[in-house]
Amino acid sequence: MSENRLQVGRVLRAGVQGFVVGCELKQPDIPPFGSFVRASGITPGSAIYGLVYNVSLEDDLFARHFVGRDIDDAVIKDERENRQVPVEVSILAVGCAEGKILRQCLPPHPPVTLDWLYQCADEEVRAFTARLDYFRLVLDARQTPVDELLAASIRAAAAARPEEEREMFLVGAGRELARLLAGDPLRLEGLLRRLQTA
Amino acid sequence: MTLELSRLAGQVRVMGQQLATREREYADLVAQAREWLTQYADRGEALRHPARGFHAAIPTGEPLDAEFPLPAIPERFTFIAADGTEIQPDSHEIAYYYLINVGYLVYRHGSDQTPEAHSLPTIGYAEDDIYDRSRLVSGNLLDIKRDLAEITALADLCAAEPSDAVTIAVVDGTLIMWTLAGASPDYQREKAQVYIQQLEHIRDSGAVVAAFISRPRRGEVARLLYLASVDGDLKQADEERNPLRHLADYAVFEMLAPGARSALFASPSSINYDYYEKEGHTIHFFYLNVAEEGGAPAIARIEVPAWVAEDADRLALVHGAIVAQARITGDYPYALIRADELAFISGPEREALEDMVIASLVRAGMHAALSPKKYYKTLTRQGKRKFR
Hints:
Oligomer: heterodimer
Radius of gyration of chain A: 18 Å
Largest interface: A-B, 14 and 17 residues
Distance between the termini of chain B: 11 Å
Structural class of chain B: alpha+beta
Shape of chain A: globular
Strand content of chain B: 15-25%
Strand order of the largest sheet of chain B: 1-9-10-11-8-7-2-3-4
Strand order of the largest sheet of chain A: 1-2-5-4-3-7
Number of helices of chain B: 14
Order of helices and strands of chain A: EEEEHHEEEHHHHH
């Protein structure tokens, strides 16, 4: 898959813990909640990995005017395709890369404004989730719906694998969760239940 | 220092009271105007000549109090709206330049197509741009350029439409180049000719053209009614006090039913008669209630050239199409709102343009600096603050 097809949007604001990108509503591939994305790092060859934890549409007073009105399709198309509806995609940083070395920790620098954000291809997701150290970063990320995000990312990582490898991956993820949440069996149970839908 | 709102509180309170009082007084004047509208409804023919000398609305063949209900709206038609904004040149800036941005929306009624939304920004910086007959282009002179840019964009868009399409082009504002008032006759003629040429292009394309003025302050019909009340006697009209002198026409026509238009009048503007009339484009106008059934009146002044005003089908198209557009929002043509939005230049966009200009000058090896006045304004106007 070409890089262009995986472009999500451009970075609007950023910090080492996460960043926000802006994209157009008509874009067909706005990445879903819990999916893996990548932005370029400041140094050449470096990258920052993250998880999508929110997709939001900013309020628009003009569009509000039409709520409750019977409106033409042309107005809806104009609103969606022509007016600048700012869709914001929020990312939690969960790793970084220097060349081929992947680390599941906060990146040393945030990405730069207007850098492109890409959806990770299945191959990248498999490589990144060969280790599961990023679970702790997610569990500590209080600004996100932690358990939902972690479960969604595990499901996304499983889906990026061939069918015959998925169960083994999920069992490994379950074990890691059991280790991290040993003191909170109720929460662990809730997370494991969410994984059963994978 | 901040704006001391506390010092304004008393003034604003008095203002509110006085405006409310004036509104009540106006109600009596509106009643008087409507009474005269009915009483002198058939005096149009006799008033036509004196009206021109009195700068009052010039009656056409329609009774003054005529009210035309909403005509049938065509199932398919294209509504093209244009609006323009500008950045005035500033001698304190890095470079002397201006910007005209024309926004337009092409809305195809009766189709599923997404409206076409665009803006056409033009920067003027060359000697020929920033000087017009040796005068620096700013203020009114730039407004004239913007008016011409708007009508030219509309004419180009109309020409691009299929010849059998039903198309209406609408400008936000007026079709009369009021901005020429006060200029030399020679200059007026030159600019009016360019504008009229674009009106001709629109006519040749098979489209119709109109201007939409929301809540207009003009009182030409009110002047006509006063003139009628003195039997068209110009001397008496000049000598006596016109009780309707501050009454805006739109208040008189707030009695129009939703979707209905008033009678047609011709504009008494000298620019209209000196230039537009000779070319067959005399600007006429009517008032239109674009509100929905049950809504508060939303009166707009609609201007059309003679070749639209004198053609029943074209006039009905303008009437119906503008109401159809206004009904999308409830009381204002959707395409005009969008054209304004597309033309609007926000503060951050203005700053981004300034940055682009600076970068371009520096790359070209030019020293770029704000004037000292502008520099200090950038320091003091970032945000007002007060530490007590």
